[in-house]
Amino acid sequence: MTTKPLLKVDNLKKYFPVKKGMLGRTVGQVKAVDDVSFYVNEGETLGIVGESGCGKSTTGRMLMRLLEPSEGKVEFDGQELTSLSSDEMRKTRRDIQMVFQDPYASLNPRHTIGKILEEPLIVHGLDNAKERKEKVRKFLEIVGLSAYHAKRYPHQFSGGQRQRIGIARALMTNPKLIIADEPVSALDVSIQSQVLNLMQDLQKDFNLTYIFIAHDLGVVRHISDRVAVMYLGKMVEIAESEQLYVEPLHPYTQALLSAVPVPDPDYKKEQIVLEGDIPNPANPPSGCTFHTRCPFKMDICTKVVPELIQHGPGHSVACHLYGDESDNDIKKMEGSL
Amino acid sequence: MSERKTILQVKDLQTTFFTDSGEIPAVDHIDFHVKEGEILGIVGESGCGKSVTSLSIMGLIPQPPGKIVGGEIVFQENDLLKMTERQMRQIRGNDIAMIFQEPMTSLNPLFTIGNQMLEAILIHEKGWSKKKAKERAIEMLQLVGLPRAEEMLQDYPHQLSGGMRQRVMIAMALVCDPKVLIADEPTTALDVTIQAQILKLMRELNTRLNTAVLLITHDLGVVAETCERVIVMYAGQIIEESPAKQIFDDPQHPYTKGLIQSIPDMRFKKDRLYSIPGSVPKPGSIKQGCRFAARCEFAFDRCIKEDPELYETSDAHQTRCFLYDKEGAEMDDNKTLIESR
């Protein structure tokens, strides 16, 4: 397997200003994404998980520059995206496509499926009318629908079928990278597995690279090669998916994994039920943002922001428990877990 | 344990919606019961009729277009369907309470938490003073694990997080000590770490107060962690009923089997997920035969021609599938087929 990063993200930040009063003065900032760095290799799937408000969707949107990053670099296929003009960026979007969560809201109800699928080709000035029609037919069949569906409107399809259409639209321009933001969370379980299987098949057939953003840890494990965990705008852990699920290091990852209900009553797990709620991102806790809910909080956690440090091959974690000095503490913690 | 009394019995319930495009039998002849103090789960995918079932019990079906066209709902020896709206209002909240999926939309944004809780208490507990009601409200908020309960009475719903709002809803539902709590997707809108808190709370309250819970969910993981018994619904019918443990150890209906297999497992990676072909039929679109036949890989002639009934397959386990009809002749080959999977 060639391991060449297709996408490299460095110190990406997005701060939203908080405005108040009639004059709209900026009184604060919401650090939606705060200093996130990662890479995605060609042909692999990187899963990004986290709870609501952790910044996973904002990250996905910034990669396509649907949202302008406040700071940081995004390098895609050797090209620095953040410095491109909007014209150049539009051309690059041919190679990066997105699949959205809500298949009801992301398809124009007044357009036929044929028109919806043709549009990316028209925007990018690809193919002539006849070739475009041909391509629409081809991709409808690839995603498991039929050519005659091109004449229909979105409301005539079920949720699962609409998500197939959303995927077909993303494939039309023959992209290299697909950013899928909660692509199956609006679907029923039996439909969800159909769409996941489809995405895996397409990845093989078209050599696609995926960034798969989701809150469902089971789904993410199933589809991802590597998984990144986010909490309050920061990446707290990133590892090979096998590694992350078997041996999670960050206390948040551990709690998150233990909180997922497993469909097996015989499975006895040690459940770590976190106290409290996710803090307000406009006023995040000092130091490590997780310290307010962390069962292993130390003095240092309230003061110093932990950095994402490598702690094994391909496994990085942002937690003071895994600093040099606290090696003994970890052993203690692991004993007590 | 097994001597618990049945507290709520649903008999042959049919709820139909009369729309411009025809009659839609959302709930189609269902029978089940809830025992004192148990947690019964109802699972199914969207449109299977699980929420309509719960709304039927509460007498909250919007009418028109909906109507309960047949059956009985017996609660403590009285048929709820024969009650007047006035009598029903006494049952709701007092004896059977309900919490919903979206705690934001079920709380009134214009009134404080205290205001809304006191209203609920004073409606049901005639003759209580405001002070007594307030004490009760604080007690309930503490019971559901909310810190600073007293101050929270002054808060408006928007000041609380999703998890806290759901706790408030639970406190409000339990304020009159109901015998049955219907929880319709109580954790679906919440994050996993918050979901874990709420499920833990519901289990604790169930043990402590002995309130029976009817938990409606689409998540089999939630069922595995909370329920004693489970009912699986598909296209308006109950297709399988069993103790919760058995549904995972020995799922019988091909739909239940498919559903369990199509969940991505967090504990180990499957190469490929099983997927049930096709999609859920529109309610009422299948007039004859098994509702699942078109998607079922074990379907044979009889499945398209006749309606299967719920067959008893073992103690407390029932399945609506001809493969389990002991009188049927065709079943043997297919049975081995289904068991080999």
From TrEMBL, chain A:
Example of a GO biological process term: peptide transport
Keyword Metal-binding carried by entry: no
InterPro entries xrefs: AAA+_ATPase, ABC_transp_ATP-bind, ABC_transporter-like_ATP-bd, ABC_transporter-like_CS, Oligopep_ABC_C, P-loop_NTPase
Keyword tags: ATP-binding, Nucleotide-binding, Transport
Residues of the ABC transporter domain: 7-257
GO molecular function, one term: ATP binding
Top-rank taxon: Bacteria
Family from the record: Belongs to the ABC transporter superfamily.
Protein's recorded name: Oligopeptide transport ATP-binding protein OppF
Lineage: Bacteria, Bacillati, Bacillota, Bacilli, Bacillales
TrEMBL record, chain B:
Pfam families assigned to the protein according to its UniProt record, in alphabetical order: ABC_tran, oligo_HPY
Organism taxonomic ancestry: Bacteria, Bacillati, Bacillota, Bacilli, Bacillales
Chief location of this protein within or outside the cell: membrane
MF-aspect GO terms: ATP binding; ATP hydrolysis activity
Occurrences of domain ABC transporter (ranges): 8-260
Key words, A-Z: ATP-binding, Cell membrane, Membrane, Nucleotide-binding, Transport
Membrane-protein topology: Peripheral membrane protein
SUPFAM superfamilies per UniProt: P-loop containing nucleoside triphosphate hydrolases
Entry superkingdom: Bacteria
Name of the protein in its database record: Oligopeptide transport ATP-binding protein OppD
Annotated compartments: Cell membrane
InterPro entries in the record: AAA+_ATPase (IPR003593), ABC_Ni/Peptide_Import (IPR050388), ABC_transporter-like_ATP-bd (IPR003439), ABC_transporter-like_CS (IPR017871), Oligopep_ABC_C (IPR013563), P-loop_NTPase (IPR027417)
Family named by the database record: Belongs to the ABC transporter superfamily.
Name of the gene encoding the protein in the UniProt record: oppD_2
GO CC field: plasma membrane
GO biological process: peptide transport
